Amino acid sequence: MGSRRLTEFGVFGLKQAWACIFGAALLAVILAARLWYPDSAGLARNDSLTLAAVAIQIILVATRLETLRELRVIVLFHLVGTAMELFKTDVGSWSYEAEGVLRIGAVPLFSGFMYAAVGSYMVRVYRLFDLRFARYPRRWVTAVLAAAIYVNFFSHHYIADARWVLLAAVALVFGRCVMHFRVFRSRFRMPLVLSFLLVALFIWIAENIATWSHAWLYPSQQAGWHLVSVDKLGAWFLLMIISVVLVAWVYKPVPPEADGSASA
């Protein structure tokens, strides 16, 4: 029993690493640019990050590590994220170095790939872990909730922030949903809300690495870098709802009984 659990744990880690390949590669490039990119280079650092992100995406599709079906979701993440970036930088929520030509206004194009990395992870983990969902809420309800979350990312700058109301709505809508997933030989279960929180935590960790690398900075980090506020976990948690809804458009949630598998 001990060796079986150890095997399942090892395979779980390998699959998670494989699912993160786009995000991990992009984060590695951002970190490398911070440590070793020469200030005297003829190509602006942000432009080099954009070209590197495009190259990573092309390699993943060309080698069939990502399918064209998955690419559709990733492009959608890119567009949704870029729209948010344009607004958030305009109101001063965070900022990028004003350099390079591959940008829209103050937003370098590589920023959209960071949202695409989340999309890449979501669609890959769906396939690698053969996800099934017990008591998944109606998709139109989740779509309305995701739309409200997305609107609040913009509207809270002008009217009351509905974040806590939306977090309560997430608990109400997804609270009964349980995710079933296969690691190697066994299937396991986890409350879907808990999986949202765990992914949000890892995104927050990656965000700290990215801001330390000066990929972007929050206003409070301009005078000197420090850890991103844990309050951002709430924002990333809510982003996971948008992410799940976007993926559910391509991969319709299937109940565990659909394949007759038992859960461990």
Describe the structure.
The chain has 264 residues and is mainly α. 62% of the residues lie in helices and 6% in strands. The chain contains nine helices and five strands. It has helices spanning 2-19, 21-36, 45-62, 68-90, 110-128, 139-155, 163-174, 192-212, 232-250; strands spanning 103-104, 107-108, 132-134, 178-182, 187-191. A three-stranded antiparallel beta sheet has the order 3-4-5. It has a two-stranded antiparallel ribbon with strand order 1-2. A hairpin with a 2-residue loop joins strand 1 (103-104) and strand 2.
What structural category do the secondary elements indicate? mainly alpha
Query: Are there runs of 5+ residues with pLDDT below 50, and where?
Result: 260-264
- Main sheet: which strands, in order across? 3-4-5
- Total count of helical runs of at least 4 residues: 9
Which bin fits the share of residues in helices? 55-70%
